[in-house]
Amino acid sequence: MSGIGNIDLKQLRVLRALLKERSLTRAASQMGMTQQAVSAQLNKLREVFQDRLFLRSRQGVVPTPLAQELEPRVKAVFDSIEQLIPPERFDPASVQGTYVISATDYAVEVVLPELVARVRQQAPGLKLIVRQFESDRLHAMLASGELDLALTFPAFAPESCQSKLLFSEYHICVAGNDSPLHERKLTIGDVAELPQLIVSPTRANLIGSADSWFASKGYGRNIVMSVPSFSAAPTCVASSDCVAFLPSRILPHPLVTPIDLEESPPCFDVIAAWHPRTDQDPLQQWVLSLLQEAFPGQV
Question: pTM (2 decimals)?
């Protein structure tokens, strides 16, 4: 043989057709080619394999022993190529593999149960891995394929990523159940002076998502504590003199009670984010459709 680099897919298709039809005329008809074009490709194949491959007969052509030996190999090549092409219709029930999601504990509590229920019902062969949310590595993890989806807030989503709005959320200011703050309505100025707890799931600092809202009203915040998870916030608030702004969907909670405010911070969005490289991936599109189904029209 003169080398695999001298053969192309078109020539292999001609070889497959001749092995099946045993006729240049029928092979040409099947492939939509002229008989002369098929003959030209056959001549190239003969050069590659250094064998005549087919001999003329009254009925058409007869394969040589080498051509007969090549037949199952050619079939295996095309079977492998067909496996590279995804099926036209995505069937969740036949999906096998692993799908990796990055999420804060808020998304784990609020978003994931709706998604997991649908995945387990429709795609039992798909395994889910939920990772701790890491905003600093989010772009690299999505771009490399280490991560398939992030459930987050727009401020944490890389600009290079695509995103889908799941719903709009709002904060409720809470204090411990026995706090005297429940006896009156508070102004923004009142709240600004109170010791406040914030949730910072990505970075250990004292910077909160409502800081800009307080600043726009001319106030700074008296932030005295930061915790890394939303689930830890109610316990810490209940055992201290702190107040906290918590997302409405993790409330009510038995340890805290909402405070009556004259004005509340603006709403914020909860999104799903992914890398553009998976835009056309059937599995990605299906997962996003499940999220759309779980949170329809909740903007």
Answer: 0.71
